[in-house]
Input
Amino acid sequence: MRLLPPTLLPCLALLATLTAQAAPAPVFDTAPLQTQEKAIGAVLEKMPKSPNLLSRRGDTRVFLGDFKGAIADYEGMIALDASLDAPHWRLGIAYYFAGEFSKAALQFAKYHAYDARDRENGVWKFFSQVRGEGLEAARKGLLVYTQFDREPFPSVYKMLAGEQTPAGVLEELERKGLQKETQVVFFAKYYAGLYESVTGHKEAGLKWVQEAVAIFPPEAADRGGPGYMWHAARLHAQQLATELGR
Output
């Protein structure tokens, strides 16, 4: 057996670290969110035309897994103020989790017209189209970006196009010296996991997504962490585990 070249050893060491068995996902207590939803609802009874309150309750409902309720709140915001439609990427995510993939893809397309720099929006449009139309259609429909936004999304986008493997996304973090940037690693693992799961590798997908969730404890996710997207990753981990009978 030939010895590995020295330059390859650091990459393999990184890969072993980044792909190690994920720790069990932290238990997430939804009781505070349930209390918050009820409190916002009580105020909404007195102020039913408040887009801000509908927005807050919609977010809370997403985090609780009540996607239809979140859609009702988010669409209610837009009914009150049509200018909120195009920038409403959260509605696209609620549609996605609710299984309304065509509506999700359309919402992310609207957001692209509003902000043509945010590749993460294109990532969600891709996943929506994969689920609704298949991988080939999703790749043909990849949104075009000409400006750099933030890491690790250029590499993630190459993965979606079939030009990069999920493991390659993490290897690229090492080459760029980003392996200690927790939010960058979170997004790399989360979207690598989603890619694996929608392309027929749910076991690998669950592992990556669980690792992403485990990077931040629940109490830190909203304080300097990825916030809304941490909850999305947590919900995806739960869905995948259920699908796999875990």
Q: What stands out?
A: Residues 105 and 125 are 5 Å apart (CA to CA). The radius of gyration is 19 Å. Residues 182-198 form the longest helix (17 residues).
